[in-house]
Amino acid sequence: MTSKTPRERFEQHKTGYRNKNGHKLSSNIVEKYGLYLRPSLYNHIAPLSNRDEAITMEKKLALSLRRQRYAVWFN
After folding, report:
1. What is the tens place of the pLDDT at every residue in 2-36?
2. Residues 6+ apart with CB under 8 A from 24
């Protein structure tokens, strides 16, 4: 879960973003292979109010996209 927009988070992944303590917060897979976002795949999802909802939605969406043969990773 993040306070960033999908576009801001994608840019963090692409640039290899590290927090102020030097911990890498970006995905190597996105950094290496990510080309662009597909808003049509996530724009229909309203903002979620808590972390548990976000984790559940992330898993549900990822599995749905995998069934459609998209390459998707999640924690």
Report:
1. 678 889 999 999 999 999 999 998 889 999 999 99
2. 16, 17, 18
